[in-house]
Amino acid sequence: MKILELTALELGRKIKKREIGVAEATKAALAQIRALEPELNCYVTVGEEQALIQAEQVQRKIDKGELAGPLAGVPAAIKDNMCLEGMATTCSSKILENFVPSYTAEAVKRMMDQGAVILGKTNMDEFAMGSTTETSAFGETKNPWNPAHVPGGSSGGSCAAVAARECFYALGSDTGGSIRQPSSFCGVTGIKPTYGTVSRYGLVAYGSSLDQIGPVGKNVKDCAAVLEMISSYDKKDSTSIQREDWDFTSALTEDIKGMRIGIPKDYFGPGLDSQVRDAVLMAAKVLEEKGALVEEFDLSLVEYAIPAYYVIASAEASSNLSRFDGIKYGYRAKEYEGLHSMYKKSRSEGFGPEVKRRIMLGSFVLSSGYYDAYYLKALKTKALIKKAFDRAFEKYDVILGPAAPSTAPRLGESLNDPLKMYLGDIYTVSVNLAGLPGMTVPCGKDKKGLPIGLQLIGNCFQEKKLIRVGYAYEQSRSYEEPELAVRVSESQKEEHEGERSAGGEV
Amino acid sequence: MTNRISDETIEYVGILAKLELSGEEKEAAKQDMGKMLDYIDQLNELDTEDVEPMSHVFPIHNVFREDVVTNQDDRENILKNAPEQKDGAFKVPRTVE
Q1: pLDDT > 90 in chain A, percent
Q2: Whose C-alpha in A36, A97, A109, A181 is 20 to 30 A from the C-alpha of A446?
Q3: Catalytic site residue A93?
Q4: How far is B12 from chain A (nearest CA, A)?
Protein backbone atom coordinates (compact mmCIF):
# COMPACT_ATOMS: atom_id res chain seq x y z
CA MET A 1 0.00 0.00 0.00
CA LYS A 2 1.32 3.42 -0.91
CA ILE A 3 0.16 5.97 1.61
CA LEU A 4 0.81 8.95 -0.63
CA GLU A 5 -1.52 7.68 -3.31
CA LEU A 6 -4.51 7.71 -0.99
CA THR A 7 -7.01 10.54 -1.14
CA ALA A 8 -7.52 12.52 2.06
CA LEU A 9 -10.76 10.69 2.89
CA GLU A 10 -9.27 7.27 2.14
CA LEU A 11 -6.37 8.05 4.46
CA GLY A 12 -8.76 9.34 7.12
CA ARG A 13 -10.68 6.07 6.98
CA LYS A 14 -7.54 3.97 7.30
CA ILE A 15 -6.36 6.05 10.25
CA LYS A 16 -9.71 5.51 11.92
CA LYS A 17 -9.46 1.76 11.35
CA ARG A 18 -5.90 1.81 12.80
CA GLU A 19 -4.46 0.55 9.53
CA ILE A 20 -2.22 3.58 9.26
CA GLY A 21 -0.84 5.69 12.11
CA VAL A 22 -1.03 9.49 12.00
CA ALA A 23 2.74 9.74 12.52
CA GLU A 24 3.30 7.22 9.73
CA ALA A 25 1.22 9.29 7.30
CA THR A 26 2.91 12.49 8.43
CA LYS A 27 6.37 10.98 7.96
CA ALA A 28 5.42 9.76 4.49
CA ALA A 29 4.36 13.29 3.49
CA LEU A 30 7.47 14.83 5.04
CA ALA A 31 9.69 12.35 3.16
CA GLN A 32 7.98 13.32 -0.09
CA ILE A 33 8.52 16.99 0.77
CA ARG A 34 12.21 16.40 1.43
CA ALA A 35 12.59 14.52 -1.83
CA LEU A 36 10.76 16.98 -4.09
CA GLU A 37 11.16 20.43 -2.57
CA PRO A 38 14.61 21.06 -4.03
CA GLU A 39 13.01 20.81 -7.45
CA LEU A 40 9.46 22.14 -6.94
CA ASN A 41 9.55 24.68 -4.07
CA CYS A 42 5.87 24.31 -3.12
CA TYR A 43 6.46 25.41 0.48
CA VAL A 44 7.79 28.60 2.05
CA THR A 45 7.98 26.96 5.48
CA VAL A 46 7.89 23.28 6.41
CA GLY A 47 7.17 22.67 10.09
CA GLU A 48 8.61 19.20 10.37
CA GLU A 49 9.00 19.11 14.15
CA GLN A 50 5.65 20.75 14.83
CA ALA A 51 3.93 18.36 12.43
CA LEU A 52 5.36 15.30 14.19
CA ILE A 53 4.33 16.63 17.61
CA GLN A 54 0.84 17.39 16.28
CA ALA A 55 0.66 13.92 14.76
CA GLU A 56 1.23 12.32 18.16
CA GLN A 57 -1.30 14.56 19.86
CA VAL A 58 -3.91 13.86 17.19
CA GLN A 59 -3.26 10.11 17.39
CA ARG A 60 -3.83 10.16 21.15
CA LYS A 61 -7.12 12.00 20.70
CA ILE A 62 -8.22 9.55 18.01
CA ASP A 63 -7.30 6.64 20.28
CA LYS A 64 -9.34 8.14 23.10
CA GLY A 65 -12.27 8.66 20.77
CA GLU A 66 -12.11 12.45 21.08
CA LEU A 67 -11.55 12.95 17.36
CA ALA A 68 -13.83 11.06 15.03
CA GLY A 69 -14.10 13.33 11.96
CA PRO A 70 -13.47 11.88 8.48
CA LEU A 71 -10.22 13.83 8.08
CA ALA A 72 -8.77 13.39 11.57
CA GLY A 73 -5.04 12.75 11.36
CA VAL A 74 -4.69 13.66 7.67
CA PRO A 75 -1.65 15.88 6.97
CA ALA A 76 -2.41 19.08 5.08
CA ALA A 77 -0.82 22.34 3.96
CA ILE A 78 -2.03 25.92 4.14
CA LYS A 79 -1.29 28.86 1.90
CA ASP A 80 1.17 31.27 3.42
CA ASN A 81 -1.38 34.09 3.74
CA MET A 82 -3.24 32.33 6.54
CA CYS A 83 -2.06 32.87 10.09
CA LEU A 84 -0.92 29.92 12.15
CA GLU A 85 0.19 30.71 15.67
CA GLY A 86 3.92 30.23 16.08
CA MET A 87 4.76 29.63 12.41
CA ALA A 88 6.01 32.35 10.04
CA THR A 89 3.29 33.81 7.79
CA THR A 90 5.05 35.65 4.99
CA CYS A 91 2.54 36.06 2.14
CA SER A 92 5.68 35.27 0.11
CA SER A 93 6.80 38.85 0.74
CA LYS A 94 10.03 40.23 2.09
CA ILE A 95 8.01 42.71 4.12
CA LEU A 96 6.56 39.88 6.25
CA GLU A 97 9.61 37.63 6.19
CA ASN A 98 9.92 37.52 9.98
CA PHE A 99 6.26 37.76 10.94
CA VAL A 100 5.14 35.06 13.36
CA PRO A 101 1.43 35.43 14.18
CA SER A 102 0.21 35.23 17.76
CA TYR A 103 -3.09 33.71 16.61
CA THR A 104 -4.50 31.21 14.12
CA ALA A 105 -6.87 31.90 11.23
CA GLU A 106 -10.42 30.65 11.89
CA ALA A 107 -10.45 28.29 8.87
CA VAL A 108 -7.12 26.77 9.95
CA LYS A 109 -8.28 26.51 13.55
CA ARG A 110 -11.37 24.59 12.42
CA MET A 111 -9.16 22.20 10.47
CA MET A 112 -6.90 21.61 13.45
CA ASP A 113 -9.85 21.20 15.81
CA GLN A 114 -10.90 18.30 13.60
CA GLY A 115 -7.48 16.71 13.64
CA ALA A 116 -5.59 18.15 10.67
CA VAL A 117 -1.81 17.87 10.94
CA ILE A 118 -0.29 21.02 9.43
CA LEU A 119 2.82 20.25 7.40
CA GLY A 120 3.66 23.81 6.52
CA LYS A 121 2.87 26.97 4.60
CA THR A 122 2.72 26.97 0.82
CA ASN A 123 4.26 29.39 -1.64
CA MET A 124 2.17 31.98 -3.45
CA ASP A 125 2.38 35.11 -5.53
CA GLU A 126 3.40 37.96 -3.23
CA PHE A 127 0.26 38.98 -1.30
CA ALA A 128 -1.69 36.77 -3.74
CA MET A 129 -1.04 39.27 -6.56
CA GLY A 130 -0.21 37.28 -9.64
CA SER A 131 -1.26 34.29 -11.71
CA THR A 132 1.93 32.23 -11.79
CA THR A 133 3.50 32.12 -8.27
CA GLU A 134 6.51 33.81 -9.88
CA THR A 135 6.07 37.05 -7.91
CA SER A 136 6.95 35.23 -4.67
CA ALA A 137 9.92 36.78 -2.88
CA PHE A 138 11.09 33.25 -2.07
CA GLY A 139 11.44 31.86 -5.57
CA GLU A 140 8.90 30.45 -7.99
CA THR A 141 7.10 27.14 -7.54
CA LYS A 142 7.37 24.72 -10.44
CA ASN A 143 4.59 22.71 -12.00
CA PRO A 144 4.87 19.05 -10.94
CA TRP A 145 3.66 17.95 -14.39
CA ASN A 146 6.56 19.74 -16.04
CA PRO A 147 8.99 21.79 -13.95
CA ALA A 148 9.70 24.11 -16.92
CA HIS A 149 6.16 25.45 -16.48
CA VAL A 150 4.45 27.55 -13.81
CA PRO A 151 1.89 26.00 -11.43
CA GLY A 152 -0.42 29.01 -11.89
CA GLY A 153 -1.32 31.30 -9.05
CA SER A 154 -1.67 32.76 -6.72
CA SER A 155 -2.28 29.52 -4.76
CA GLY A 156 0.37 27.78 -6.90
CA GLY A 157 2.19 26.27 -3.92
CA SER A 158 -0.99 24.68 -2.51
CA CYS A 159 -2.05 23.21 -5.87
CA ALA A 160 1.42 21.96 -6.78
CA ALA A 161 1.84 20.42 -3.32
CA VAL A 162 -1.39 18.44 -3.72
CA ALA A 163 -0.44 17.33 -7.24
CA ALA A 164 3.05 16.31 -6.11
CA ARG A 165 1.61 14.47 -3.10
CA GLU A 166 3.53 16.70 -0.71
CA CYS A 167 0.28 16.88 1.29
CA PHE A 168 -3.12 15.20 1.15
CA TYR A 169 -5.08 18.41 0.75
CA ALA A 170 -4.45 22.12 1.11
CA LEU A 171 -6.15 25.42 1.69
CA GLY A 172 -5.85 28.17 -0.90
CA SER A 173 -7.44 31.58 -1.26
CA ASP A 174 -9.19 32.97 -4.31
CA THR A 175 -9.56 36.69 -5.04
CA GLY A 176 -9.78 36.54 -8.84
CA GLY A 177 -9.22 32.87 -9.65
CA SER A 178 -6.31 32.05 -7.35
CA ILE A 179 -7.67 28.61 -6.43
CA ARG A 180 -9.39 27.69 -9.70
CA GLN A 181 -6.66 28.65 -12.18
CA PRO A 182 -3.71 26.89 -10.45
CA SER A 183 -5.98 23.88 -9.83
CA SER A 184 -6.49 23.77 -13.59
CA PHE A 185 -2.76 24.09 -14.30
CA CYS A 186 -1.81 21.42 -11.73
CA GLY A 187 -4.56 18.90 -12.51
CA VAL A 188 -6.20 19.05 -9.08
CA THR A 189 -9.66 20.01 -7.81
CA GLY A 190 -10.34 23.32 -6.07
CA ILE A 191 -13.39 25.17 -4.79
CA LYS A 192 -13.90 28.90 -4.33
CA PRO A 193 -16.96 29.06 -2.07
CA THR A 194 -19.72 31.69 -2.03
CA TYR A 195 -18.39 34.90 -0.49
CA GLY A 196 -18.83 34.78 3.27
CA THR A 197 -18.92 30.98 3.58
CA VAL A 198 -15.44 30.56 5.04
CA SER A 199 -14.26 33.05 7.66
CA ARG A 200 -11.56 35.47 6.50
CA TYR A 201 -10.38 35.99 10.10
CA GLY A 202 -6.62 35.48 10.02
CA LEU A 203 -6.36 35.61 6.22
CA VAL A 204 -4.03 38.45 5.26
CA ALA A 205 -6.30 40.77 3.27
CA TYR A 206 -5.79 41.56 -0.41
CA GLY A 207 -9.17 42.51 -1.92
CA SER A 208 -11.51 42.09 1.02
CA SER A 209 -14.78 42.15 -0.94
CA LEU A 210 -13.43 39.36 -3.18
CA ASP A 211 -11.18 37.15 -1.00
CA GLN A 212 -12.40 33.68 -0.04
CA ILE A 213 -10.54 30.69 1.40
CA GLY A 214 -11.28 27.32 -0.16
CA PRO A 215 -10.06 23.71 -0.43
CA VAL A 216 -7.66 22.14 -2.92
CA GLY A 217 -7.68 18.35 -3.17
CA LYS A 218 -7.22 15.27 -5.31
CA ASN A 219 -10.93 14.98 -6.04
CA VAL A 220 -14.36 16.51 -5.55
CA LYS A 221 -15.14 14.28 -2.57
CA ASP A 222 -12.08 15.45 -0.62
CA CYS A 223 -12.84 19.08 -1.44
CA ALA A 224 -16.46 18.75 -0.28
CA ALA A 225 -15.30 17.23 3.02
CA VAL A 226 -12.69 19.94 3.58
CA LEU A 227 -15.15 22.69 2.71
CA GLU A 228 -17.63 21.25 5.19
CA MET A 229 -14.92 21.34 7.85
CA ILE A 230 -13.68 24.91 7.30
CA SER A 231 -17.00 26.70 6.62
CA SER A 232 -18.64 28.51 9.50
CA TYR A 233 -20.44 31.62 10.57
CA ASP A 234 -17.81 33.61 12.40
CA LYS A 235 -18.50 36.73 14.43
CA LYS A 236 -14.87 37.74 14.00
CA ASP A 237 -15.45 38.28 10.25
CA SER A 238 -18.11 40.95 9.71
CA THR A 239 -18.86 39.64 6.19
CA SER A 240 -19.32 36.06 7.37
CA ILE A 241 -22.71 34.67 6.37
CA GLN A 242 -25.14 32.53 8.33
CA ARG A 243 -25.97 29.94 5.67
CA GLU A 244 -28.83 27.52 5.73
CA ASP A 245 -26.69 24.54 4.73
CA TRP A 246 -23.14 23.48 5.49
CA ASP A 247 -23.49 19.76 4.70
CA PHE A 248 -21.64 19.84 1.39
CA THR A 249 -20.78 16.15 1.38
CA SER A 250 -24.48 15.28 1.19
CA ALA A 251 -24.34 16.43 -2.45
CA LEU A 252 -21.92 13.69 -3.46
CA THR A 253 -24.34 11.91 -5.73
CA GLU A 254 -23.94 10.89 -9.32
CA ASP A 255 -27.52 11.68 -10.23
CA ILE A 256 -27.63 14.78 -12.38
CA LYS A 257 -30.65 13.88 -14.48
CA GLY A 258 -32.53 16.97 -15.52
CA MET A 259 -29.96 19.44 -14.21
CA ARG A 260 -29.69 22.44 -16.49
CA ILE A 261 -26.15 23.33 -17.51
CA GLY A 262 -25.42 26.51 -19.46
CA ILE A 263 -22.31 27.05 -21.56
CA PRO A 264 -21.55 30.75 -22.12
CA LYS A 265 -20.73 31.25 -25.81
CA ASP A 266 -18.67 34.27 -24.78
CA TYR A 267 -16.26 31.94 -22.92
CA PHE A 268 -15.33 30.22 -26.17
CA GLY A 269 -14.24 33.21 -28.24
CA PRO A 270 -10.82 34.02 -29.66
CA GLY A 271 -7.97 33.66 -27.20
CA LEU A 272 -9.09 30.24 -26.00
CA ASP A 273 -6.65 27.44 -26.76
CA SER A 274 -8.35 24.91 -29.05
CA GLN A 275 -7.20 21.93 -26.98
CA VAL A 276 -8.69 23.48 -23.84
CA ARG A 277 -11.92 24.16 -25.72
CA ASP A 278 -12.17 20.60 -26.98
CA ALA A 279 -11.51 19.07 -23.55
CA VAL A 280 -14.10 21.28 -21.87
CA LEU A 281 -16.76 20.60 -24.52
CA MET A 282 -16.01 16.90 -24.27
CA ALA A 283 -16.72 17.10 -20.54
CA ALA A 284 -20.02 18.83 -21.28
CA LYS A 285 -20.90 15.92 -23.54
CA VAL A 286 -20.19 13.44 -20.73
CA LEU A 287 -22.57 15.34 -18.46
CA GLU A 288 -25.19 15.39 -21.19
CA GLU A 289 -24.90 11.62 -21.53
CA LYS A 290 -25.50 11.36 -17.80
CA GLY A 291 -28.80 13.13 -18.20
CA ALA A 292 -28.02 16.82 -17.79
CA LEU A 293 -29.64 19.32 -20.13
CA VAL A 294 -26.78 21.22 -21.73
CA GLU A 295 -27.19 24.30 -23.90
CA GLU A 296 -25.26 27.35 -25.00
CA PHE A 297 -26.24 30.90 -24.08
CA ASP A 298 -24.95 34.48 -24.08
CA LEU A 299 -23.73 35.56 -20.67
CA SER A 300 -22.62 39.03 -21.86
CA LEU A 301 -20.24 41.58 -20.30
CA VAL A 302 -17.42 39.01 -20.06
CA GLU A 303 -14.80 41.41 -21.45
CA TYR A 304 -15.61 44.04 -18.81
CA ALA A 305 -14.94 41.79 -15.83
CA ILE A 306 -11.14 42.13 -15.95
CA PRO A 307 -10.95 45.94 -16.04
CA ALA A 308 -13.59 46.19 -13.29
CA TYR A 309 -11.78 43.57 -11.25
CA TYR A 310 -8.36 45.25 -11.45
CA VAL A 311 -9.82 48.60 -10.39
CA ILE A 312 -11.66 47.13 -7.40
CA ALA A 313 -8.95 44.68 -6.31
CA SER A 314 -6.17 47.28 -6.62
CA ALA A 315 -8.22 49.89 -4.75
CA GLU A 316 -8.87 47.49 -1.89
CA ALA A 317 -5.25 46.34 -1.93
CA SER A 318 -3.91 49.89 -1.68
CA SER A 319 -6.07 50.39 1.38
CA ASN A 320 -5.42 46.99 2.96
CA LEU A 321 -1.67 47.09 2.46
CA SER A 322 -1.33 50.50 4.09
CA ARG A 323 -1.04 48.58 7.37
CA PHE A 324 2.51 47.55 6.45
CA ASP A 325 4.33 50.52 7.89
CA GLY A 326 7.41 49.04 9.56
CA ILE A 327 6.10 49.64 13.07
CA LYS A 328 3.98 46.84 14.48
CA TYR A 329 5.38 43.94 12.46
CA GLY A 330 7.31 43.19 9.35
CA TYR A 331 10.31 44.74 7.69
CA ARG A 332 11.71 48.14 8.70
CA ALA A 333 14.27 49.95 6.54
CA LYS A 334 17.68 50.28 8.11
CA GLU A 335 18.25 53.90 7.14
CA TYR A 336 15.71 56.70 7.15
CA GLU A 337 15.15 60.27 8.26
CA GLY A 338 12.04 60.64 10.38
CA LEU A 339 8.73 58.84 10.45
CA HIS A 340 7.50 59.39 6.89
CA SER A 341 10.80 58.47 5.35
CA MET A 342 10.73 55.30 7.48
CA TYR A 343 7.25 54.38 6.15
CA LYS A 344 8.22 55.02 2.54
CA LYS A 345 11.58 53.29 2.66
CA SER A 346 10.29 50.24 4.55
CA ARG A 347 7.44 49.77 2.08
CA SER A 348 9.53 50.44 -1.01
CA GLU A 349 12.23 48.00 0.06
CA GLY A 350 9.77 45.44 1.42
CA PHE A 351 7.24 45.14 -1.43
CA GLY A 352 7.99 43.56 -4.81
CA PRO A 353 7.22 45.14 -8.22
CA GLU A 354 3.76 43.61 -8.82
CA VAL A 355 2.55 44.64 -5.35
CA LYS A 356 3.83 48.18 -5.86
CA ARG A 357 2.17 48.31 -9.28
CA ARG A 358 -1.21 47.44 -7.79
CA ILE A 359 -0.85 49.75 -4.79
CA MET A 360 -0.04 52.61 -7.19
CA LEU A 361 -3.01 51.84 -9.45
CA GLY A 362 -5.30 51.45 -6.44
CA SER A 363 -4.15 54.73 -4.90
CA PHE A 364 -4.75 56.45 -8.24
CA VAL A 365 -8.30 55.17 -8.83
CA LEU A 366 -9.28 56.15 -5.30
CA SER A 367 -7.75 59.64 -5.47
CA SER A 368 -9.97 62.68 -5.68
CA GLY A 369 -10.76 63.56 -9.26
CA TYR A 370 -10.55 59.95 -10.43
CA TYR A 371 -12.70 58.15 -7.86
CA ASP A 372 -15.97 58.54 -9.80
CA ALA A 373 -14.48 57.85 -13.21
CA TYR A 374 -12.70 54.66 -12.17
CA TYR A 375 -13.70 53.25 -8.80
CA LEU A 376 -17.42 54.03 -8.89
CA LYS A 377 -17.59 53.04 -12.55
CA ALA A 378 -16.09 49.66 -11.65
CA LEU A 379 -18.60 49.17 -8.82
CA LYS A 380 -21.43 49.92 -11.27
CA THR A 381 -19.98 47.45 -13.74
CA LYS A 382 -19.88 44.90 -10.95
CA ALA A 383 -23.63 45.45 -10.42
CA LEU A 384 -24.25 44.81 -14.13
CA ILE A 385 -22.13 41.64 -14.08
CA LYS A 386 -24.04 40.37 -11.05
CA LYS A 387 -27.30 41.00 -12.91
CA ALA A 388 -26.05 39.08 -15.95
CA PHE A 389 -25.35 36.08 -13.70
CA ASP A 390 -28.74 36.45 -11.99
CA ARG A 391 -30.39 36.20 -15.41
CA ALA A 392 -28.32 33.15 -16.32
CA PHE A 393 -29.20 31.35 -13.09
CA GLU A 394 -32.91 31.82 -13.78
CA LYS A 395 -32.35 29.35 -16.62
CA TYR A 396 -29.45 27.19 -15.44
CA ASP A 397 -28.37 25.32 -12.32
CA VAL A 398 -24.72 25.44 -13.23
CA ILE A 399 -22.56 27.33 -15.73
CA LEU A 400 -19.79 25.34 -17.37
CA GLY A 401 -16.65 26.63 -19.09
CA PRO A 402 -12.86 26.58 -19.00
CA ALA A 403 -10.97 27.74 -15.90
CA ALA A 404 -8.24 29.42 -17.95
CA PRO A 405 -7.69 30.17 -21.66
CA SER A 406 -4.62 27.94 -21.87
CA THR A 407 -2.64 25.34 -19.99
CA ALA A 408 0.29 26.38 -17.77
CA PRO A 409 2.70 28.77 -19.52
CA ARG A 410 6.46 28.27 -19.31
CA LEU A 411 8.33 29.89 -16.44
CA GLY A 412 9.45 33.42 -17.17
CA GLU A 413 6.95 34.12 -19.95
CA SER A 414 4.26 35.98 -18.06
CA LEU A 415 5.67 38.75 -15.87
CA ASN A 416 7.09 41.06 -18.55
CA ASP A 417 3.62 41.85 -19.85
CA PRO A 418 1.29 42.32 -16.84
CA LEU A 419 -1.75 43.14 -18.96
CA LYS A 420 -1.40 39.89 -20.87
CA MET A 421 -1.13 38.00 -17.59
CA TYR A 422 -4.27 39.74 -16.31
CA LEU A 423 -6.17 38.61 -19.44
CA GLY A 424 -5.58 35.01 -18.37
CA ASP A 425 -8.06 35.63 -15.55
CA ILE A 426 -10.95 36.24 -17.94
CA TYR A 427 -13.03 33.21 -16.92
CA THR A 428 -12.46 33.47 -13.19
CA VAL A 429 -12.62 37.10 -12.00
CA SER A 430 -16.33 37.69 -12.68
CA VAL A 431 -17.16 34.90 -10.21
CA ASN A 432 -15.42 36.85 -7.43
CA LEU A 433 -17.07 40.12 -8.45
CA ALA A 434 -20.49 38.46 -8.19
CA GLY A 435 -19.62 36.55 -4.97
CA LEU A 436 -20.46 33.20 -6.59
CA PRO A 437 -19.05 29.74 -5.89
CA GLY A 438 -16.80 28.21 -8.53
CA MET A 439 -14.98 24.92 -8.85
CA THR A 440 -12.25 23.48 -11.06
CA VAL A 441 -12.21 19.78 -11.94
CA PRO A 442 -9.48 18.24 -14.15
CA CYS A 443 -10.86 17.30 -17.57
CA GLY A 444 -7.90 16.26 -19.70
CA LYS A 445 -4.43 17.09 -20.88
CA ASP A 446 -2.99 18.95 -23.86
CA LYS A 447 -0.47 17.56 -26.35
CA LYS A 448 2.38 18.62 -24.07
CA GLY A 449 0.90 16.54 -21.27
CA LEU A 450 -0.19 19.55 -19.20
CA PRO A 451 -3.53 19.34 -17.35
CA ILE A 452 -6.70 21.12 -18.45
CA GLY A 453 -9.37 22.18 -15.96
CA LEU A 454 -13.11 22.48 -16.26
CA GLN A 455 -14.76 25.33 -14.35
CA LEU A 456 -18.24 25.01 -12.89
CA ILE A 457 -19.96 28.15 -11.61
CA GLY A 458 -23.04 28.15 -9.39
CA ASN A 459 -25.44 30.73 -8.05
CA CYS A 460 -24.78 32.07 -4.54
CA PHE A 461 -25.06 29.30 -1.90
CA GLN A 462 -25.38 26.60 -4.58
CA GLU A 463 -22.09 24.82 -3.86
CA LYS A 464 -24.00 21.57 -3.64
CA LYS A 465 -25.00 21.78 -7.30
CA LEU A 466 -21.35 22.29 -8.26
CA ILE A 467 -20.32 19.36 -6.12
CA ARG A 468 -23.04 17.17 -7.63
CA VAL A 469 -22.08 17.97 -11.22
CA GLY A 470 -18.35 17.85 -10.48
CA TYR A 471 -18.67 14.51 -8.71
CA ALA A 472 -20.82 13.03 -11.48
CA TYR A 473 -18.28 14.10 -14.07
CA GLU A 474 -15.39 12.80 -12.02
CA GLN A 475 -16.91 9.31 -11.89
CA SER A 476 -16.38 9.12 -15.64
CA ARG A 477 -12.64 9.56 -15.34
CA SER A 478 -10.02 8.49 -12.84
CA TYR A 479 -7.70 10.88 -11.05
CA GLU A 480 -4.41 11.30 -12.82
CA GLU A 481 -1.20 12.17 -11.08
CA PRO A 482 1.88 13.71 -12.63
CA GLU A 483 4.85 11.51 -13.44
CA LEU A 484 7.32 13.03 -11.03
CA ALA A 485 11.04 12.84 -11.54
CA VAL A 486 11.45 11.70 -7.95
CA ARG A 487 8.40 9.95 -6.60
CA VAL A 488 9.12 8.53 -3.22
CA SER A 489 12.40 8.78 -1.36
CA GLU A 490 14.42 5.60 -0.97
CA SER A 491 13.95 5.26 2.79
CA GLN A 492 10.22 5.61 2.29
CA LYS A 493 10.25 2.82 -0.28
CA GLU A 494 12.02 0.43 2.06
CA GLU A 495 9.76 1.35 4.94
CA HIS A 496 6.71 0.22 3.02
CA GLU A 497 8.21 -2.60 1.04
CA GLY A 498 6.83 -5.14 3.49
CA GLU A 499 3.29 -3.83 3.35
CA ARG A 500 3.27 -3.75 -0.42
CA SER A 501 4.50 -7.31 -0.83
CA ALA A 502 1.84 -8.35 1.66
CA GLY A 503 -0.63 -7.25 -0.98
CA GLY A 504 -2.04 -4.19 0.80
CA GLU A 505 -4.75 -2.74 -1.37
CA VAL A 506 -5.95 0.81 -1.46
CA MET B 1 -1.40 55.30 -25.16
CA THR B 2 -4.20 57.82 -24.64
CA ASN B 3 -3.65 58.06 -20.90
CA ARG B 4 -0.41 59.95 -20.44
CA ILE B 5 0.65 59.97 -16.82
CA SER B 6 2.61 63.08 -15.89
CA ASP B 7 5.57 63.23 -13.52
CA GLU B 8 3.40 65.22 -11.11
CA THR B 9 0.74 62.51 -11.05
CA ILE B 10 3.30 59.82 -10.31
CA GLU B 11 4.77 61.97 -7.51
CA TYR B 12 1.30 62.53 -6.07
CA VAL B 13 0.28 58.87 -6.26
CA GLY B 14 3.62 57.95 -4.67
CA ILE B 15 2.72 60.17 -1.71
CA LEU B 16 -0.74 58.58 -1.40
CA ALA B 17 0.72 55.09 -1.70
CA LYS B 18 3.59 55.87 0.71
CA LEU B 19 6.08 54.47 -1.77
CA GLU B 20 9.42 55.94 -2.74
CA LEU B 21 10.10 54.94 -6.33
CA SER B 22 13.46 55.20 -8.05
CA GLY B 23 13.72 57.15 -11.31
CA GLU B 24 13.56 53.92 -13.24
CA GLU B 25 10.56 52.64 -11.26
CA LYS B 26 8.74 55.94 -11.86
CA GLU B 27 9.18 55.67 -15.62
CA ALA B 28 7.95 52.06 -15.53
CA ALA B 29 5.00 53.07 -13.34
CA LYS B 30 4.03 55.80 -15.83
CA GLN B 31 4.01 53.27 -18.65
CA ASP B 32 2.22 50.56 -16.67
CA MET B 33 -0.44 52.83 -15.30
CA GLY B 34 -1.06 54.47 -18.67
CA LYS B 35 -1.52 51.10 -20.35
CA MET B 36 -3.78 49.82 -17.55
CA LEU B 37 -5.94 52.95 -17.64
CA ASP B 38 -6.27 52.69 -21.44
CA TYR B 39 -7.52 49.17 -20.90
CA ILE B 40 -9.80 50.13 -18.02
CA ASP B 41 -11.31 52.91 -20.14
CA GLN B 42 -13.29 50.33 -22.07
CA LEU B 43 -15.68 50.38 -19.10
CA ASN B 44 -16.86 53.69 -20.57
CA GLU B 45 -18.57 51.73 -23.34
CA LEU B 46 -21.11 50.64 -20.74
CA ASP B 47 -24.11 52.78 -19.96
CA THR B 48 -24.21 52.88 -16.16
CA GLU B 49 -26.33 56.01 -15.90
CA ASP B 50 -29.02 54.49 -13.67
CA VAL B 51 -26.93 51.78 -12.04
CA GLU B 52 -26.23 51.87 -8.32
CA PRO B 53 -22.59 51.13 -7.45
CA MET B 54 -22.44 47.70 -5.80
CA SER B 55 -19.89 47.49 -3.02
CA HIS B 56 -21.22 44.23 -1.64
CA VAL B 57 -23.15 41.46 -3.37
CA PHE B 58 -25.34 40.59 -0.39
CA PRO B 59 -27.47 42.96 1.65
CA ILE B 60 -25.31 42.92 4.76
CA HIS B 61 -25.33 45.28 7.70
CA ASN B 62 -22.90 46.35 10.34
CA VAL B 63 -22.39 43.68 12.95
CA PHE B 64 -22.56 45.26 16.37
CA ARG B 65 -21.60 43.73 19.68
CA GLU B 66 -21.21 44.90 23.24
CA ASP B 67 -17.89 46.58 23.85
CA VAL B 68 -16.59 43.83 26.10
CA VAL B 69 -13.04 42.49 26.02
CA THR B 70 -13.05 38.79 25.15
CA ASN B 71 -9.37 38.12 24.45
CA GLN B 72 -6.47 37.90 26.87
CA ASP B 73 -3.61 40.33 27.23
CA ASP B 74 -1.11 39.25 24.59
CA ARG B 75 1.24 42.20 24.72
CA GLU B 76 4.44 40.20 24.92
CA ASN B 77 3.64 38.00 21.92
CA ILE B 78 2.45 40.91 19.83
CA LEU B 79 5.53 42.97 20.61
CA LYS B 80 7.75 40.09 19.52
CA ASN B 81 6.93 41.02 15.93
CA ALA B 82 7.84 44.69 16.29
CA PRO B 83 11.02 45.75 14.47
CA GLU B 84 11.84 47.88 17.50
CA GLN B 85 10.30 48.05 20.95
CA LYS B 86 10.95 49.81 24.21
CA ASP B 87 9.34 49.54 27.66
CA GLY B 88 6.47 47.39 26.44
CA ALA B 89 5.62 49.68 23.52
CA PHE B 90 6.34 49.98 19.79
CA LYS B 91 9.32 52.22 19.17
CA VAL B 92 8.94 54.74 16.33
CA PRO B 93 11.17 57.51 15.03
CA ARG B 94 10.77 60.86 16.78
CA THR B 95 7.66 62.59 15.40
CA VAL B 96 7.46 65.73 17.53
CA GLU B 97 10.44 68.03 17.84
Answers
A1: 91
A2: A36
A3: no
A4: 9
